[in-house]
Design goal:
6-stranded mixed β-sheet
Amino acid sequence: MANLKLKLVHLYPLFLNIYGDIGNVKVLKQRCEWRGIDLEIEQLNIGDTLAEGTDIFFIGGGQDRQQVEVSEEIQNHKSLLIDEYNKNAVFLGICGGYQLMGEYYQPHDAKRLEGIGILDAYTVAGSTRFIGNVTAQTDFLEEENTLVGFENHSGLTYLQGDTVPMAQVIVGNGNNGQDRTEGARSKNAFGTYLHGSFLPKNPHFADYLIKLALQKRYNDIIELEPLDDTLELKAHEVVLNKAY
C-alpha cells in the first residue's frame, strides 16, 4: 500500500470532544500508519477556512453550550460540506456531532439548532436520559457485524427519507428508545450515539471507513492488509451484549 494518502478534517475539536472522542481520530491514524497509508489530519475550529478535497470528516460530541456555538459556525461551511458528501467523502459524527449532521436539534426551552442536513434526520429533546452500554447489529459489515459503545444522551433522533439506521439495537436505547434503531447512514456519512471511544472497540468499522475513503480518493476498491486485532476485539467482546 505504498504511497497511498488520505486527508481527515477533525471538525471543532476544541468544542466537541467529550468521552474521549478524539480517540476515534487516533485509531484511524494508527490503523492507516500500520498499513503504510499516510493520513493527513487537519483541525477546523471557529473562524478557520475549509478547503475542498477532504476524504474523511470527523465531528464529536459536546455539551449544549458548545453545540450552540458549533451549530452557528458550521453553517458557514454547509454548502462545501454537502458538496463533499455528494463526492462520497466519509463522515463520522458522534452524539452531538451526529445531531448536527441532521436537519436540526430542538432543545426543550431554547431556539432550534440548525444542522447541515447531510443526514435526513431530526432530533428533539426528550425527558429521559439514556445512559449505558449499547450493542447493535449492522447489515453492511461482512465478517464482524456488531457494534458496541456507551450512550449518554436525552436527544431523540428520528430518521426520514433515504437515511437509514446504521444498526439495529440489541442492548440499549439507540436513537430514541422506541424503534430499536441506532445511528444513521446515508451514502458515506454515518452518525451514532456511541461514545467510548467508539472506534477502538470496533476496529472492523474503522477499517470499513478507511476502505470507503480510499475508494473515494482513488476510485477503486483497495483491500486492506489484515492487522492483529486481538486486543481490540477483546475490548469489543467485554461490552458485547452487556447492559451498563
